[in-house]
Amino acid sequence: MDLAFAAAAEHGAELVIANDPDADRVAVGVPDGHGGWHRLSGNEVGWLLGWRVAQQAAERGLDRGTLACSLVSSPALGVVARKEGLDFVETLTGFKWISRAGDLIYGYEEALGYLVDPDKVRDKDGISAAVVVLGLFSDLKAAGLTFAEHRAAFADRYGAFASGQISVRVSDLARIPELMARLRQDPPREIGGIRVDQVDDFTDGFGIFPPSDILRFHLEGGSRVIVRPSGTEPKLKCYLDTRSDQGSPAERQATADAALAALDAGMRELLG
């Protein structure tokens, strides 16, 4: 992406799209308004594409359909689904779970994976997702709208969201269960100054989810923290999500971003 941004700046491009080597994921970059470039997070792309799919479903007169995302992806997609009268499903991580959602019209996970056309490719696919991204930006261009205006319209309709991630790499694998056990035995009452309202422990299963080594903290104001060991690396992973629906779109985003910074600092302190 750094090389792509350098080339984009040299040639005056308006959009950067990159696939990984096997093209099952896609990354998107936009000008940051200050002469540089900003790579959108997987969640930002995820909820914006979900909004687009929901709009297209309404235009086609579909009276049913499901938006789905992994448990650790932003709750924004669920807000879109409820606002637009669609079903919403949260799944375990991985598209083997997302793709099984009934009446699926769109699914994503925060790790840059998007399922945009389940009738053709019922898995994450960076090529079809790139086509949808191009369609979105082409439509914005034709309507005389900037991406910043489009993002503000999303915040105005659904609220502003921010998401982040912390990965704690360990040299001793025993450290991971020790950290999880400490969080279970002495759960925090607040994180970064934000009150914890509820803790969901997935050890024995939770709702529709099977037993998993996952902790989910619901915080005041709609913020959320999910902690789980990585399935592929010697890491403990924390997924941070915040939301604000008070004030103007710019004020909402500023509030969500500030809450995210507080959660990030609080979790780093909590994990030592």
Q: Main attributes?
A:
single chain, 272 residues, alpha+beta, Alpha-D-Glucose-1,6-Bisphosphate, Chain A, domain 3, TATA-Binding Protein, 4-stranded mixed beta sheet, 8 helices, globular
Short characterization:
Helices cover 38% and strands 27% of the residues.
Description:
With 272 residues, the protein is of the alpha+beta class. The chain folds into two domains: 43-125, Alpha-D-Glucose-1,6-Bisphosphate, subunit A, domain 3 (Alpha-D-Glucose-1,6-Bisphosphate, Chain A, domain 3, 3-Layer(aba) Sandwich), CATH 3.40.120; 159-271, 2-Layer Sandwich (TATA-Binding Protein), CATH 3.30.310.50. It has helices at residues 2-11, 42-59, 76-83, 95-98, 126-143, 147-158, 175-185, 249-271, and strands at 16-19, 26-31, 37-39, 66-70, 87-91, 104-109, 113-115, 160-169, 190-191, 194-201, 215-219, 224-229, 235-244. A six-stranded antiparallel sheet has the order 8-13-12-11-10-9. The protein has a four-stranded mixed sheet with strand order 5-4-6-7. A hairpin with a 6-residue loop joins strand 1 (16-19) and strand 2. The radius of gyration is 19 Å and the shape is globular. The two termini are 32 Å apart. The mean pLDDT is 95.
